Amino acid sequence: MPEKQSATGLGKGLGQAPKAGSANPADQPEVAAPVGRFSLFFTSIVPVTRLANKRRIDQVDLPGLIPSDGAAVQYAGFTRNYAKKQLVGAAILPLINPLIILGSLLFAVNVATLYVGPIVLQQFLYLIQDEQTCTANAEAELAGGPAAEPCESRLWFGYVLAAVLLVSKIVGSFCLSHSEMLMTRAALRSRSAIMSALFRKCLRLAGVQETSTGQVRRPAYGMRGSPESPRQ
After folding, report:
1. Is 5 contained in some domain?
2. In this predicted structure, which of 171-180, 193-202, 211-220 has the lowest mean pLDDT?
3. Is there a contact between 93 and 194 (Cβ–Cβ < 8 Å)?
4. How many structural domains does the chain have?
5. For the residues 97-114, what does the mean pLDDT come to?
6. Domain of 124, in residue numbers
7. Residues 160-185: what's their mean pLDDT?
8. Distance CA 220, CA 230 (A)
9. Exposed (0-12), middle (13-18) or buried (19+): which is 209, by Cβ within 10 Å?
């Protein structure tokens, strides 16, 4: 009887579902990543970088993918554009043109802010020169020298120049970060569309013995220097 009871108990144990607190990672339910979104101040990325300084990050800690950047969406747009004009470049450009145009404009703003620093420093030198001249004339007049033209102190203008220099650096860094992010998204969009198309082509040609997967993929590696390749 004890043997039967132990066998019965073993059978019940095997038939039971794993507990929620099981230590086996395979028994834990998969947690879907949150849907990605565009954040003006990178609010979805900053917490991940802070968490990486404390511990090793896992897949669930990473921000989710923006729905418009998904591989399925890019492949659908690629096939739709390719059906109109049988050119790979003409099919990819509509997918990445908005990101490239906006990224280029932001990069141009960043380049423009680089010229603000030298101009502000030049104005600082002019301001210091004017202040020193006014001080020297006032001291000479007090010492019994000839009366000089009255001049007004413009120290407040120095604070304005310092604020302009600070704001220009913040705006330039902000635009450069968003420009790099947009260019990276454009590169990932084009690569996702191309690799999805190649994957489906490999599936169609899987039963053809005269064509290997390497022969199908070789043209993709040759497109790195072509206009269809992602530019960063």
Report:
1. no
2. 211-220
3. no
4. 1
5. 96
6. 40-221
7. 94
8. 12
9. exposed
The answer to whether residue 25 sits within a structural domain is no
Q: What is the pTM of this model?
A: 0.69
How far apart (Å, rounded) are the C-alpha atoms in residues 187 and 99? Answer: 10
Q: Count Cα atoms within 13 angstroms, Cβ side, for 162.
A: 5
Measured CA to CA, the distance from residue 192 to residue 69 in angstroms comes to 9
Q: What are phi and psi of 84, to 5 degrees?
A: -80, -40
Q: Is the dihedral of CA 81, 85, 86, 90 positive or negative?
A: negative
pLDDT digits (tens, 9 = 90+) for 193-212: 999 998 888 887 766 656 56
Say whether 35 sits in a helix, a strand or coil: coil
Q: Is residue 145 left, alpha or beta, with left meaning phi > 0 and alpha meaning psi from -120 to 50?
A: beta
CB contact at 8 A, 180 and 61: no
Residue range 160-168: mean pLDDT, rounded: 95
In a domain, 18, yes or no: no
Looking at residues 75-82, what average pLDDT do you find?
A: 93
Q: What is the DSSP letter of 63?
A: P
- Token couple for 196: 């999805």
Between helix 88-114 and helix 116-142 the angle, nearest 10°, is 10
The answer on pLDDT for 41 being more than 90 is no
Q: Which residue, 2, 65, 73, is CA-closest to 36?
A: 65
- Hey, what are 30's tokens? 């998969």
- Is residue 36 within 8 A of residue 67, CB to CB? The reply is yes
Residue 90 lies in a domain: yes
